[in-house]
Model the fold of this input.
Amino acid sequence: MIDTWHSLSLLLGSPLIQRSLVAAFVVGLAAPVIGTYLVQRRLSLLGDGIGHVALTGVAMGWLVGSWTQVTPNDALAVPGAVVAAIIGAVIIEAVRARGRTSGDVALALLFYGGIAGGVVIMGVAGGTNANLMGYLFGSISTVTTTDLVATVAMSAVVLAVGLGLRTALFAVCQDEEFARSTGLPVRALSVLIAIVAALTVTVSMRVVGLLLVSALMIVPVAIAQLVTTSFRRTMTLAMVIGVIVCVTGLTITFFHRLAPGAMIVVVAICLYAVVAVLRPLVHAPGRRIVDPHPDLEDDVRIVPSGSD
Amino acid sequence: MRTRSSATTTGRTEPTGDVLAAHALRVQLGSATILRGVDLAVSPGEVVALLGANGSGKSTLMRALLGLVPISDGDAHVLGTSVRTQRTRVAWERVGYVPQRVTATSGMPATALEVVLSGMLHRHRFHPGRGGRARALEALDSVGLGDRSRAGLHELSGGQQQRVLIARALARRPDVLLLDEPVSGVDRPSQETFARLLADLHARGVTVLIVLHELGLIEPIIDRAVVLRHGRVVHDGALPAPAPGHEGEDHDHVHAEHGEHVEHPEKTIQRSLP
Done:
């Protein structure tokens, strides 16, 4: 145990480790905020779709970088991911708002086109399989100071929008039709959610990778939901859980040679399982028994005589 | 409905002109024409019931008035502003809408209070603001759920959830209230609370358009009925008599009690498909 603490304090002295921990903390805090709105809208897999599209953006960044001879050669990867993720998110939002069933197929084409296109373009741009794996499954151990600044800045935007406009975004995600009847600019707010989701995907890419970003947005919310009844508390708790699983998962990989992104998601899923198992034990006595049947007065109605 | 205490003040701020109006309104969704040539005018302070069979276009008319479905031809006006051409300029902060919902829940937990607070927003207000909480609690109180403000939606019955949605519209302190089947499938206490609430709002001069399947306890409050059939207005005036086969001696349907409450002796069981 003392050995562990000793090696941990040594680790914490390393700037590389410090940067990765700060990145994990910030992303763990920000990702569940936007995840809360996506779960509320029943769009849990939106982040996954944006992540697929963002890979094409990363590869495009590499391609443009190789043409323009920028150094390092991945300097344009994150800007490319931001642009592609935003475009993808806005397209997904437009398809969702139209609510056509044919949109489902359109989204499938977009998602798989995004992954396949990304892999192919990456090859053209001279990226290696190792580079590709870094984007798909995270590369938190190589966070530079520039990366960290970008991560913190984008997370700050996500937090500012997600927390600052909470009631308005709640209204839009809770009951979109009602929100439109109130005069709220629902379309603009929906696009804002999509853009902020795209930013979240891009910042999370570094920590858990594009294939797992959705997990970081959704799983903490799913855990928080198990034990809360209010929206506000669910969001706050999800942020706390996000930080805990990111920092814990990352710390584990300091001692064992495991992929940090995947470890973080595994820790989150395990936490979900533990809370789901423990919840009935904790909550059972105080829980109100809810009648699942709706009160339908006129289903069968006993009527009097002499009515007109 | 400016203040809760002064029940005598009226919400009639439009002495001239109709609060809600439709002129030769046509709504087409895909290849189906849902509404055609619908004319409707609701004066300030009126309580108008929108009746008709399922699929006659009642809900669509209400949603067209709110600009929630595209208008193909004709026009609709809310508080004197065209919904078709100037939707963003309508004074939506004065309009309360209670949509028809099977459940008020979404993918996230939320308390009754949080849902009601979301009803206080409009184009220029993205936060409930100071005093918003008190107003939301007041609205919950008026639907008889003052003690359940912290309850999660999923803990409430269907009728209680419906009342939360009514409170969400009331928290805006609207001058116009549009309700889409607010009492369908709710329990008796919820219906009674709603009837009292509607009488109260009517007394304060709030204009009400209400889609109904059955009149029930609120019949005495209704000034006028508009009946839709196949997307057209077939009646506009006094409450119509029930259709043949629904007016029998033993058929309660909607005319069971005219204000006076009678204990129902068990006699006939009537089935009505929802």
Q: What stands out?
A: The helical segments of chain B are 58-65, 112-118, 132-142, 158-170, 188-203. Residues 20-102+174-237 of chain B form a domain with the Rossmann fold fold (CATH 3.40.50.300). Chain B is about 20% helix and 25% strand. The longest strand of chain B covers residues 32-42.
